[in-house]
C-alpha cells in the first residue's frame, strides 16, 4: 500500500497518541494482579494488540473495547499455553513476557516476524543457560522452559532495557526479595523508570538502590485503575511540522512524564539553530525524525546510534538510503551518524518505508515539504495507526492508495 503526500503546511490542534510504552507496561501489570483492573486510554496499535493477545494466551482475561481494557489477572505460575504466543513484530511484547513464561516451569513458545525473532536475545539466553533453563530459537519461534525464583541476578543493560523490564515483572510476582545487578552501563534508563512507575502503580515496591542495582520486594501485584498518558515519541513527528512553517499544538501530554523521548523538543531547538551534536543513546527511537530534521535544516552529528541496527529496520542505514532520494547525505559509522548540509529536492522515485513505522512517519514529514510517495505506509499501524488521519486533519495533503 502507498501514500502520496503533497507539499502542504500543518495547522491546528490534535491529541497526542497514547503511549505505546506505557500501555504495554500497565496492561502487563494489570494481568499479574489478583483481581479486576481497568486500564484506560489504550491505542489499538498492533504492538499493544500483540501484548493483549499474548496475555490472554498466558491465562489473563482481558475485555478490550478499543480504548479501555478490563483485566482479570492470572497467576502466571500456573500458565500452560497450548498455542504459541503471537508477538508479531513487537519487541516489547516478546522481551517483556519471556520471564513471565519462565514462572511456571512449563514450555512456552513465542512466535513472531522473522526479524523480531532474529533480534538479539543474548541477555535471556545467558540467564537461561546459567540457570539450566531451556532457551531455543530456530529463527521462526523461541521456546523457553524453566522456573524462576527470587534471588540475585546479574544482567547486562547495554543491549536493551526491555530485558530488565521483563525480569522486574516476573520477580515482582515471586515471594521474597530479589536484586538485579546491572553489569554494564545502562542504556535507555528512562524506559526502566517507566517500568518502575507502572509496577508502583499496581502496588509493587521496587526501584533503583543505586545506579547499578535494582531491588524488587516481591509478593505480587494489587488491582488498580490506571490511564495511559500521551506519547512523546509519536508527538515528535507531529510537532516537527512546526519547524517547517507549521502551527501545530498537541494536547494530552504529561508535563511530569518520565518518557525519555520528551527530549525531542530540546533537540529540535538545537537543530533549528544550526549544526548540532546530539547524543541519542537514551532516545534511539527519535533517530529517524532527528535525521530528517537535520537533513532539512543545518545538518548534525549524532552519537549513540549503534542500537538503531537492531530496531524494526537498520534505521540509520535505511534513513541514509531514503533521505538520499531527497539529496541528503548521511555518513554512518558504528556508533555515529553525520548528516551533512546539502540542498534538498523532491524525490524522483517512490520511497520505501522498510516496514518501519518511524521511517514512514519521518519520510511523511519531509514529503510535506517536497512532495513524495511512500510505499508500505501501513507500517504505522505498529505504533500510531491514526498518524495519517491526524496529519490530514492538520492540513497535510494525503492521498492513500490501497494497491
Features:
single chain, 4-stranded mixed beta sheet, UDP-n-acetylglucosamine1-carboxyvinyl-transferase, Chain, 2 domains, globular, 13 helices, 403 residues, alpha/beta
Helix content range: 25-40%
Looking at CATH, which topology of the largest domain would you report?
A: UDP-n-acetylglucosamine1-carboxyvinyl-transferase, Chain
Q: What's the CATH architecture of the largest domain?
A: Alpha-beta prism
Any idea how many domains?
Answer: 2
Percentage of β-strand residues: 15-25%
Beta-strand segment tally: 22
pLDDT < 50 runs, ≥5 residues? none
What's the level 1 CATH class of the largest domain? Alpha Beta
Q: What would you report as the Rg, rounded to the nearest angstrom?
A: 21 Å
Q: What structural class do the secondary elements suggest?
A: alpha/beta
What's the pLDDT, averaged over the residues? 97
Q: Helical region count? A: 13
From the spread of the alpha carbons, the general shape counts as globular
Q: Between the first and last Cα atoms, what is the distance in angstroms?
A: 5 Å
CATH superfamily caption of the largest domain: Enolpyruvate transferase domain
Going across the biggest sheet, name each strand in turn.
20-21-1-22
Instruction: Please give the largest β-sheet.
Output: 4 strands, mixed
3D structure, described in words:
- There is one protein chain.
- With 403 residues, the protein is of the alpha/beta class.
- It folds into two domains: 2-17 and 230-401, Enolpyruvate transferase domain (UDP-n-acetylglucosamine1-carboxyvinyl-transferase, Chain, Alpha-beta prism); 20-219, UDP-n-acetylglucosamine1-carboxyvinyl-transferase, Chain.
- The protein is built from 13 helices and 22 strands.
- It has helices spanning 20-32, 46-58, 91-101, 114-118, 122-131, 161-172, 189-201, 232-239, 264-273, 287-296, 315-323, 357-370, 387-393; strands spanning 2-6, 11-15, 36-40, 61-64, 69-72, 85-86, 108-111, 134-137, 141-145, 152-155, 178-182, 206-210, 213-216, 225-227, 247-251, 276-279, 300-303, 329-333, 336-340, 351-352, 372-375, 397-401.
- The strands form six sheets. A four-stranded mixed sheet has the order 20-21-1-22, covered by helices on one side.
- The longest helix has 14 residues, at 357-370.
Amino acid at each position: 500500500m502507498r501514500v502520496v503526500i503533497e507539499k502542504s503546511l500543518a495547522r491546528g490542534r490534535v491529541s497526542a497518541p497514547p503511549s505505546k510504552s506505557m500501555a504495554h507496561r500497565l496492561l502487563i501489570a494489570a494481568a499479574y494482579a489478583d483481581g479486576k483492573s481497568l486500564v484506560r486510554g489504550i491505542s489499538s496499535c498492533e504492538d499493544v494488540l500483540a501484548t493483549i493477545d499474548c496475555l490472554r494466551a498466558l491465562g489473563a482475561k482481558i475485555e478490550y473495547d478499543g480504548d479501555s481494557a478490563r483485566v482479570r489477572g492470572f497467576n502466571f505460575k500456573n500458565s500452560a499455553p497450548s498455542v504459541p504466543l503471537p508477538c508479531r513484530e513487537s519487541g516489547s511484547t516478546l522481551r517483556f513476557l519471556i520471564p513471565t513464561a519462565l514462572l511456571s516451569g512449563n514450555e512456552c513458545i513465542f512466535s513472531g516476524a522473522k526479524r523480531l525473532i532474529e533480534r538479539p536475545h543474548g541477555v535471556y539466553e545467558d540467564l537461561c543457560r546459567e540457570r539450566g533453563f531451556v532457551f531455543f530459537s530456530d529463527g521462526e519461534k523461541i521456546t523457553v522452559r524453566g522456573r524462576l525464583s527470587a534471588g540475585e541476578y546479574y544482567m547486562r543493560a547495554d543491549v536493551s532495557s526491555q530485558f530488565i523490564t521483563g525480569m522486574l515483572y516476573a520477580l515482582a510476582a515471586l515471594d521474597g526479595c530479589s536484586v538485579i545487578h546491572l553489569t554494564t552501563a545502562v542504556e535507555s534508563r528512562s524506559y526502566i523508570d517507566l517500568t518502575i512507575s507502572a509496577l508502583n502503580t499496581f502496588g509493587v515496591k521496587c526501584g533503583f538502590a543505586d545506579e547499578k542495582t535494582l531491588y524488587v520486594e516481591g509478593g505480587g501485584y494489587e488491582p488498580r485503575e490506571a490511564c495511559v498518558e500521551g506519547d512523546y515519541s509519536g508527538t515528535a513527528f507531529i510537532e516537527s511540522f512546526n519547524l517547517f512553517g507549521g502551527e501545530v499544538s498537541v494536547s494530552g501530554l504529561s508535563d511530569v512524564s518520565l518518557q525519555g523521548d520528551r527530549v525531542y523538543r530540546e533537540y529540535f531547538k538545537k537543530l533549528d539553530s544550526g549544526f548540532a551534536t546530539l547524543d541519542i543513546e537514551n532516545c534511539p527511537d527519535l533517530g529517524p525524525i532527528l535525521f530528517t530534521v537535520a537533513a532539512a535544516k543545518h545538518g548534525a552529528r549524532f552519537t549513540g546510534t549503534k542500537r538503531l541496527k537492531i530496531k524494526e529496520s537498520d534505521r540509520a542505514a535505511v534513513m541514509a538510503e531514503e533521505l538520499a532520494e531527497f539529496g541528503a547525505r548521511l555518513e554512518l559509522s558504528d556508533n555515529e551518524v553525520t548528516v551533512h548540509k546539502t540542498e534538498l529536492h523532491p524525490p524522483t522515485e517512490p520511497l520505501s518505508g522498510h516496514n518501519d513505522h518511524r521511517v514512514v512517519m519521518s519520510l511523511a514529514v519531509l514529503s510535506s515539504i517536497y512532495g513524495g510517495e511512500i510505499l508500505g505506509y501501513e507500517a504505522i499501524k505498529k505504533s500510531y495507526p491514526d498518524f495519517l488521519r491526524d496529519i490530514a486533519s492538520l492540513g497535510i495533503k494525503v492521498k492513500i492508495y490501497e494497491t
